[in-house]
Amino acid sequence: MPADTTPELTPEQLAEIERKFDPETAFRPTGKLLAIVISAVLVSMSVYHFYASGFGLVRELVHRGIHLSFVLGLVFLLFGVRKNDMLPPKAWYRFDGVPLIDIVFAVLAVGAAMYLPLLPASALAQRVGNPSPTDIFMGSALLLLTLEATRRSVGPTLPIIGLIFIGFAYFGPWMPGALKHGGSSWLGIINHLYMTNQGIYGIAIGVMAQYVFLFILFGVLATRIGLGQLFIDMAMVIAGRYSGGPAKVAIFSSAFMGTISGSSIANTVTTGALTIPAMKRVGYPAHFAGAVEATASTGGQITPPILGAAAFIMVEYLEIPLRDVLAAALFPALLHYFGIFIMVHLEAKKLGLRGLRAEELPKLGVVLKDHWLSLIPLVILVYLILTGKTPDYAAVYGIIACVVVGFLNPTHRLSIKDLWDSLASGAKNTLAVGAAAATVGVVVGVVTLTGVGFRLGYVVVQTATDIGTFLSALPILGYFTVAQWALFTSLILIAVACIIMGAGIPTTATYIILVAVAAPALAVLDVQPIVAHFFVFYYGVLADITPPVALAAYAAAGIAGSNPFKTGNTAFRLGIAKALVPFVFVYSPALLLVADGFTWWLFTTTLIGAMLGIASLGVAFSGYLLAPLKAWERWWVALVSFLFIAPGLTTMAIGLMAMAPIAILQFNRQRA
Question: CB of 256 within 8 A of CB of 297?
Fold first, then answer.
């Protein structure tokens, strides 16, 4: 097969692709004066969060208000009304490229965000439940500006969801069936969403201010001192020489980058700039190359220690140590990468692809000599987390280690200007997710105000029970009880809802909404809380590679020059393990290590069964084992794979016996 000769994209072209598919990075250009001011504010934001989390004692509400004021003010300065701000940059209604109305919005947002936190605690306590006209005005302004800031920085989906929930709270008496409730006045809505810690100033914005900001800043600094390059080079050393090597490099490099990255699209562009052209050069089709990178990069959202920032939300909701969350996340993430690896390897064998030549690979000794110092901050971060330190404590000392190593490292020396730019870039990368968190606070606030989460849970469970009753009455399907069918059907319904809700919304925002809306249904079915949280989280992340809104896959298609929809479909196929693993740990929670009922025997049998099932599905989708499979053989292998995934040694043994004829046929076909 001829090698691909498509020229690699320039950094400017890659930045444009990321800007096109990731609304979180679609910053508008400004004039020099305003650029200096904004840069200083961004650096101030980083310095403040570093001080407040590491050494300061700032009251919780004040800390959240300061964080929110930074976020909203900067969003209105850096994001235009439209994605491509085409208005004349020097018009009379603009100052240094920014419309005057946006500057007014920025000032009003800062004032509304700080108005409540700056009230004396005694005065605030007296006004909760009886807000003054000024409180109502400030709360209404903050609510509307938050929705607009989120629309600009994230896209319209999340603000629309926020408006639907606000409408649900107001028009409760006119809602149908189980969704009907007493409703709330505008005063009551503002009181709950603004004056209490159940809405905009709730857990979502609190976690962003306390933990997520620091970890995003750590990721930027760690990448700047060479850790990202180390990951890519080590992946090349580990997997580059084998059949279809560049695709395997994409898997390993994305897995490594996932430890410091919180964005599927950023991960796709960063590692895909190298791996996608390399995959095309050795013979992979363009759409397959893009799909491999997109699928591997979305794995960064489920890879410890950051989990796309969801790990810190889990800590707050579940009230368990971060190390327990990371332990629970480890093996499901590894199974995701294992599934991609199997399909990539089989595709390479089917196409007869080569690995990278020796001259195309970096030397291990040179890689370690040039980059080993950049590992120190990550080692310190993980060590502090595993020894039980709080996430913000670990992040603060990880950041300090990055700065120290950066100034000492001769290969990636950090200058004062580099440090300034990194602090500004780190703060800029938090703006969209910060605005999204505030809007998520609105959604969660409506859930707590109206109890809609439990209402929806009741609707889902009742619907699933009705379906289960019908299925259990059928002759063949009656082997399973109504309760078993109800659980399975509920999981299917919730999984589909999670994928739909996650379309075009940042991972952390998706997860918080799904926990508030979908997780109560799983609680009714006696699913353990940590299992329910991971289930909705995984399916929310899956939206990044699920058409029609597969943003990571579309970004990869932009680099590969392939059909976006075809790339998205292939990415979903490659990421099928991410769709199956949640069902595995619902039925066998031992896979999460820290769930109730864990034993090493259950964990081992569950892990082996999951690996066999995922590998079998990889064979079925690829149509290749030792030789090409016929159509009926692919269907047979696909059906057998579910026997491996089902918990229990009996089903695993039946699956192995069912696979034996296919293996014999394949062996004979290869010899022939």
Answer: no
Q: Which residues contact 202 (CB under 8 A, 6 or more apart)?
A: 441, 444, 445
Distance of alpha carbon 392 from alpha carbon 386, whole angstroms: 13
> What are the residues facing 582 on neighbouring strands?
none
DSSP conformation letters of 598-616: --HHHHHHHHHHHHHHHHH
Three-state SS for 331-391 is HHHHHHHHHHHHHHHHHHHHHCCCCCCHHHCCCHHHHHHHHHHHHHHHHHHHHHHHCCCCH
CA angle 604/608/614 to nearest 5° reads 145
Question: pLDDT tens digits, residue range 292-315?
Answer: 888 888 887 788 877 767 788 888
Provide the 3-class DSSP secondary structure of residue 99. strand
Q: How confident is the model at residue 64 (pLDDT cuts 50, 70, 90)?
A: very high
Residue whose entry in the numeric block shows the structure tokens 């498509």: 6
Q: From CA 188, how far away is CA 655, in angstroms rounded?
A: 58
Round to whole Å and give the CA distance between 449 and 190: 11
Contact between residue 186 and residue 370 where contact means Cβ atoms under 8 Å apart: no
Can you tell me whether residue 3 is helix, strand or coil? coil
Query: What pLDDT is recorded for position 1?
Result: 40
Per-residue pLDDT band at 423 (split at 50, 70, 90):
very high
Peptide bond into 277 cis (omega under 30): no
Q: Supply the Cα-derived Rg of the chain in whole angstroms.
A: 25
pTM: 0.85
One-letter-per-residue 3-state SS of 131-180: CCHHHHHHHHHHHHHHHHHHHHHCCCHHHHHHHHHHHHHHCHHHCCHHHC
Alpha carbons 606 and 43: distance in angstroms, whole number:
48
Taken in order 158, 162, 165, 167, the sign of the CA dihedral is negative
Instruction: Please name the residues in contact with 165: beta carbons below 8 A apart, sequence gap of 6 or more.
Output: 442, 443, 446, 447, 452
**pLDDT tens figures, 384-399:** 988 888 888 888 999 9
Helices 649-671 and 600-622 cross at an angle (nearest 10°) of 40
Cα separation, 622 vs 403, whole angstroms = 46
| Cα separation, 207 vs 355, whole angstroms | 44
